[in-house]
């Protein structure tokens, strides 16, 4: 039976992976550790590892995995900015990912954040639990008639556009590879920043998109703009975001991802001192809603992720070609 070292295991991972791996004759070595150059040794004896978004697949880890006899890394996610693709190619570590799984899960989560911020339901929920039924400070805004600016119209971005159309919003988008003919008006990036009332990020993190949203781009945005990021944290310069929130330029922000999330997201750190001042201040603002990289977390997506990851591993173990769906230029960020 082929063994796979499964890093950063959470209880919800075991439900579908556990069931479907057994059916496919694979044994998972459940590890709670994150993958990095020091924990790579825990995969000794396994031909493959299974890794997630905050596992580190940089050069040091790739070398350590190969030293321990690991031949493949199966990412159970779409993004691969945590992988040094060039190092993996050089060292002969096969890496593959799940390019598509329930993109609706992510698009719907972005929409859930957008609605919460528009109507301040995240504040109302906390208030009424404490028997505070005052409406002061809860005035929202209608989405109907507003302009959504969608950055990246791939699988998730397109579904988010459809949801926005459903709310009666106008949709403008920026994507270097536009998909014409869906009622989406493609505009230049700076024009999107100037015109949108709500900006939602759905592009990958690459060296080109690192801090795509920064001081200069906040400067040209509408006053009171709503920013939503369900893609990757480092698309936004967090310090610039905090400044823009303090100045009122950004009216509300919904973050499912954060550039330094690797230290805290997915973990219960409620009894520890929060060392990240920027995150600390962001979370404490009334107009900021932070979720812990959970846009993917639906039963449908978890099943699809397990199926595709295990299919990739099965193909690899039986010597068949597995499409990596990655380009070397992505690098590690
Ligand atoms: P996709 O590959 O289908 O689409 C990405 C789109 O971004 C493409 O159309 C591409 O042309 C476009 N793009 C590339 N560079 C761009 C740029 N500089 N500006 C604007 N657009 C650009 O990917 P997807 O499945 O739609 O996923 C989008 C992103 O969502 C992923 O990159 C991933 O980081 C993120 N994601 C997050 C979660 C979560 O749980 N929060 C889950 C899955 C995916």
General description of the model:
- The protein is of the alpha/beta class.
- It is 35% helix and 15% strand.
- It is built from 11 helices and 12 strands.
- The protein has helices at residues 11-23, 59-67, 85-91, 103-119, 121-129, 155-166, 189-195, 215-220, 238-247, 277-284, 299-317; strands at residues 2-6, 26-30, 48-51, 72-75, 94-96, 147-151, 170-174, 185-186, 198-201, 225-229, 250-255, 288-290.
- The protein has a 7-stranded parallel beta sheet, sandwiched between helices. Strands 2-1-3-4-5 form a 5-stranded parallel beta sheet, sandwiched between helices.
- Strand 4, helix 3 (85-91) and strand 5 form a beta-alpha-beta unit.
- The longest helix is centred in the last third of the chain and has 19 residues, at 299-317.
- The radius of gyration is 21 Å and the shape is globular.
- The two termini are 35 Å apart.
- Bound molecules: nicotinamide-adenine-dinucleotide.
- The site of nicotinamide-adenine-dinucleotide (NAD) has 29 residues, from helix 4 and helix 6.
- Nicotinamide-adenine-dinucleotide binds at residues 78-79, 100, 103, 106, 151-157, 174-177, 202-204, 208-209, 230-232, 256-257, 293, 295-296.
């Amino acid at each position: 039976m082929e063994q796979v070292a499964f890093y950063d295991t959470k209880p919800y991972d075991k439900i579908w992976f556990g069931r479907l791996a057994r059916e496919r004759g694979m044994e998972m070595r459940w590890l709670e550790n994150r993958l990095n150059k020091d924990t790579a040794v825990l995969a000794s004896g396994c031909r493959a590892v299974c890794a997630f978004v905050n596992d580190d697949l940089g050069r040091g880890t790739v070398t350590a995995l190969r030293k321990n006899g690991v031949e493949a890394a199966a990412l159970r996610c779409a993004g691969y900015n945590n992988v040094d693709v060039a190092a993996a190619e050089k060292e002969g570590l096969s890496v593959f990912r799940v390019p598509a799984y329930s993109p609706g899960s992510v698009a719907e989560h972005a929409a859930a954040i957008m609605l919460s911020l528009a109507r301040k339901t995240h504040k109302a929920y906390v208030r009424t639990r404490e028997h505070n039924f005052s409406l002061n400070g809860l005035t929202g805004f209608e989405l109907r008639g507003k302009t959504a600016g969608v950055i990246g119209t791939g699988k998730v971005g397109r579904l988010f556009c459809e949801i926005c159309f459903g709310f009666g919003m106008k949709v403008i988008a920026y994507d270097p590879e536009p998909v014409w003919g869906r009622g989406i008006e493609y505009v230049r990036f700076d024009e999107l920043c100037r015109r949108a009332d709500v900006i939602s990020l759905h592009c990958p993190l690459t060296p080109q998109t690192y801090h795509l949203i920064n001081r200069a781009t906040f400067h040209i945005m509408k006053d009171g703009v709503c920013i939503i990021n369900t893609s990757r944290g480092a698309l936004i310069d967090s310090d610039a975001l905090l400044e823009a929130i303090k100045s009122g330029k950004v009216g509300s922000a919904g973050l499912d991802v954060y550039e330094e999330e690797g230290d805290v997201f997915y973990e219960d750190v409620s009894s520890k001192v929060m060392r990240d001042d920027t995150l600390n201040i962001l979370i404490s603002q009334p107009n900021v809603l932070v979720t812990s990289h959970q846009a993917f977390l639906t039963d449908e997506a978890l099943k699809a992720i397990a199926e595709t990851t295990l299919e990739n591993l099965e193909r690899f173990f039986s010597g068949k070609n597995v499409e990596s769906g990655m380009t070397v230029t992505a690098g590690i960020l």
